[in-house]
């Protein structure tokens, strides 16, 4: 990547990382309400107020994820990111880079497709939207395993600098 490098992540970037983590947990909790609200919209049948609140929480949290991921990328291209540590094997750094790239791609694509489905009422787009959920969970699991491996096995400061 041609972006400049720096010693530490910016505070903004660290804050946005953990905000996105919290919002993905919110999506994990609220997605069933969104599915029910969407079904109601598709069939023209009213849903309870509780389901509607849950559905709107999904839309708001998802839109915030889109904004936060976008801001992180701007910050990263503007000010760079700290270098990957030298003491880990090359293959592992490449797995990290590819995982990060794919996570960013899904964090931008998924909410965009969700919003597009919502505003057009198109169920096919909604299906593309939900398709990315399982890949996101698998990538996040890989990412967390990598972060823990950096800390406990390779004993780098990668986890500490994201704190
Ligand atoms: C990164 C952010 C988001 C994530 C991780 C996410 C995740 C999910 C998940 C897991 C489901 C249910 C999948 C299922 O059980 O089949 C879902 C459904 C849905 N989401 Fe999102 N969502 C996000 C953002 C959004 C946004 C911003 C909107 C905008 C309106 C949205 C609209 C929808 C709709 C309409 C459905 C129902 C689709 C259906 O039942 O076919 N999502 N989302
Ligand atoms: C929904 C969950 C998560 C998502 C979507 C996510 C996403 C990301 C992304 C995209 C990056 C790459 C930053 C960049 O190169 O610009 C990153 C970095 C990082 N994440 Fe996560 N993350 C999640 C959860 C976690 C958790 C639970 C941990 C801790 C166990 C963690 C630890 C880290 C660390 C240490 C870095 C910095 C890596 C480095 O400096 O090379 N992440 N995260």
Automatic annotation (TrEMBL):
Residues 8-162 form the Cytochrome b561 bacterial/Ni-hydrogenase domain. The chain crosses the membrane at residues 12-30, 50-71, 101-119, 131-154. It is found in: Cell membrane. InterPro entries: Cyt_b561_bac/Ni-Hgenase, Cytochrome_b561_oxidase, Di-haem_cyt_TM. SUPFAM superfamilies: Transmembrane di-heme cytochromes. GO terms for molecular function: electron transfer activity; heme binding; metal ion binding. One of its GO terms (biological process) is respiratory electron transport chain. Its cofactor is heme b. The keyword Ligase does not apply. The keyword Cytoplasm does not apply. It is a multi-pass membrane protein. One of its GO terms (cellular component) is plasma membrane. Its main location: membrane. Keywords: Cell membrane, Electron transport, Heme, Iron, Membrane, Metal-binding, Transmembrane, Transmembrane helix, Transport. Belongs to the cytochrome b561 family. This is Cytochrome b/b6 domain-containing protein. It comes from Stakelama marina.
